């Protein structure tokens, strides 16, 4: 299996789903997911059993596909219809099946969305963890993860190595996220001691930015399946598979051309480059907490860009369920990111712009929501002038 094989599967499946977007479970399995099993080199009935019986929640259930080696199930694939959004209840269902039968690998899919799981066992605990959550359009970017679920990889033990690397990266990310302030301060102290105390304030700000960039790079590698990925500064990751025709950015504008009261309030949000497709697809920014009212939104893009890159006029602030997003909210983020107190900020139609003269990072950048004024944004030479 290579990227071309996966691309051909994606093309066929997209055509089928676009022709019948409300396919139920039976038709999704027959039209889409059996081809997915073929892609992973699992064949019915040689090494794949349909409707495999397992006990969970005190009852007997049927797993849609049990992938079997030497008479023992080694992975489960639980299917839903293309007309059904995947939920945490579906994940709990599959996890129970895997725990009950000591199955180490699991896949949950509705043909459009694909969630991969691994069962972990240590001296005191057994649990099932999600490896990645991805979409049909971007499966060619996830070849490494797909290979971990092939017959040959599970049979040879290579699956454990591939997913082990992803788990190591995920643990490193947790540490960086939890200890970012301490790590940044220690880095700044070392630089100040080695060079000069005069640079400490600059080093502290840039050390925080360095940690954020490390986290973003780790996220990119996890998404790619634990294989090192590189991209140029002008490339943007597109995890939602947004097509260029759906780009709702109205165009490019110079800050001096923005009309409005200089005292108008601007909410400045940070985003990774991977968040840009959400802006493009929805003409909105989402799953955030806000306090006071504001008139405009400016987006600071972290990573290689490190600048205030986008600007929009606010239309309203609504709940995720009211936002009329291009995709269901759960397809954009996990439950923590769409908690009840988080909202979506919708922009006025045709009022989302990319800045022709973005505001570059100097020593200050928004680690969370920050406020400025339209006048400060228009005149800023660097982020220090507006934050």
From TrEMBL:
Domain Type I restriction enzyme R protein N-terminal: where?
Answer: 49-124
An example of a Pfam family matching this protein is HSDR_N_2
InterPro entries given for it? HSDR_N
Name the UniProt record assigns to this protein: Type I restriction enzyme HsdR N-terminal domain-containing protein
What species is this protein from? Halosimplex rubrum
């Amino acid at each position: 299996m290579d990227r071309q094989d996966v691309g051909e599967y994606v093309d066929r499946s997209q055509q089928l789903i676009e022709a019948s977007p409300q396919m139920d479970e039976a038709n999704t399995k027959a039209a889409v997911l059996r081809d997915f099993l073929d892609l992973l080199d699992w064949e019915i009935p040689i090494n794949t059993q349909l409707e495999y019986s397992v006990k969970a929640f005190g009852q007997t259930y049927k797993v849609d596909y049990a992938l079997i080696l030497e008479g023992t199930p080694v992975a489960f694939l639980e299917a839903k219809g293309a007309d059904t959004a995947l939920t945490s209840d579906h994940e709990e269902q599959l996890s129970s099946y895997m725990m009950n039968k000591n199955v180490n690998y699991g896949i949950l899919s509705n043909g459009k969305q694909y969630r991969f799981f691994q069962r972990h066992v240590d001296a005191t605990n057994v649990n099932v963890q999600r490896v990645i959550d991805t979409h049909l359009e971007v499966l060619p970017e996830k070849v490494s993860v797909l290979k971990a679920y092939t017959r040959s990889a599970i049979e040879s033990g290579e699956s454990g190595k591939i997913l082990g690397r992803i788990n190591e990266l995920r643990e490193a990310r947790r540490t960086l996220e939890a200890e970012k302030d301490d790590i940044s301060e220690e880095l700044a102290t070392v630089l100040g001691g080695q060079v000069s105390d005069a640079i400490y304030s600059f080093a502290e700000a840039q050390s925080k930015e360095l940690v954020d960039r490390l986290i973003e790079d780790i996220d990119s590698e996890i998404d790619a399946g634990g294989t090192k990925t590189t991209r140029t500064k002008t490339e943007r990751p597109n995890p939602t598979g947004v097509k260029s025709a759906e780009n709702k950015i109205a165009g490019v504008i110079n800050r001096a051309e923005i009309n409005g009261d200089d005292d108008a309030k601007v909410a400045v949000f940070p985003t990774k480059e991977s968040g840009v497709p959400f802006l493009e697809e929805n003409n909105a920014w989402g799953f955030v907490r806000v306090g006071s009212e504001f008139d405009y939104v400016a987006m600071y893009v972290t990573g290689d860009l490190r600048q205030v890159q986008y600007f929009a006029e606010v239309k309203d602030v609504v709940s995720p369920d009211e936002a009329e997003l291009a995709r269901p909210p759960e397809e954009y983020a996990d439950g923590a990111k769409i908690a009840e107190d988080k909202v979506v900020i919708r922009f006025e139609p045709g009022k989302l712009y990319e800045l022709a003269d973005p505001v570059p990072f100097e020593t200050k950048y928004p680690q969370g929501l920050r406020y400025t004024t339209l006048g400060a944004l228009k005149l800023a030479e660097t982020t220090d002038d507006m934050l």
